[in-house]
Amino acid sequence: MTTGFSSGSCRFADYFVICGLDTESGLEPDELSALCQYIEATKFRDGARGNLANEGENFEQSPLRRTFKSKVLAHFPDNVEWNPFDQDAVGMLCMPKGLAFRTQIDSREPQFHSFIITREDGSRTYGFALTFFEEVTSKQICSAMQTLYHMHNAEQYDILHTPTSPPGPEDQRHQHSQPRPSAHAAPAISRLQRFNSYDISRDTLYVSKCICLITPMAFPQACRKVLQQLHQAVSSPQPPPLPLESYIYNILYEVPMPPSGRSLKFSGVYGPVVCQRPKHIGAATL
């Protein structure tokens, strides 16, 4: 009989995880995430055009709207005996939509979500993830995004200038009295390049990144507060009172799981964090 959570853990959190862009492997299309997004977007829409598999690869989307593979960049500790680290599951659930790119004109508000990992024996661990955007400093990645946009705009230009069917005799006579289509297409191309482009010399590129806590029980509000304070410390020009490593160490090794039916208060980066453990453990929901 299982308890529904990792009974061997006596800690508030088992792992701290970082997921995001691996600059060494570069930009890898994430077909699975793209396919899921396509299905979600067309779930309530009739008459979806195009082949599902081809649409799922989302190559017709502008590069900033495509999905790319994210990876688990680091996790601490390496492993705990009572809760072996499942890198594939954690990586997929931390960033289920893959990597997202933005520029300085786009909204980049942090987003919080939770998930559950259920093992074959019925035991569960809980994940709480905060996704935010940070500036891309890799010139290689910025250049790759610029190249993708050059290719995308060239393809869109060809589409706008490709006739849908061969002209008939009537159409051929009509063409002599009409201006060339390229003259009318120029404003459309200009708008396409202005609102659907990335210029490495002008724009600042941002990529999504995720920090996550893996816990033996569901403490959503406490984990959200911990992660938000860690993100604030990373993004603030003023460094926190102590090195970030000390706060992460404290969460992983010095904060215990609250006793059943009791509350626990511990220190975060900028303020106290309170969590409460229910007295009776049932089917926990997030």
From TrEMBL:
Any Pfam family hit: uDENN
One GO process term, biological-process aspect: retrograde transport, endosome to Golgi
GO CC annotation: cytosol; trans-Golgi network
KW Transport (keyword) present: no
Residues covered by region (Disordered): 159-186
PROSITE patterns named in the record: DENN (PS50211)
Domain named UDENN: residues: 52-286
GO molecular function, one term: small GTPase binding
SMART domains per record: uDENN
Record-linked InterPro entries: cDENN_dom, DEN5A/B, Tripartite_DENN, uDENN_dom
Record keywords, A-Z: Guanine-nucleotide releasing factor
Name of the protein this chain belongs to: DENN domain-containing protein 5A Rab6-interacting protein 1
Native source species: Larimichthys crocea (Large yellow croaker)
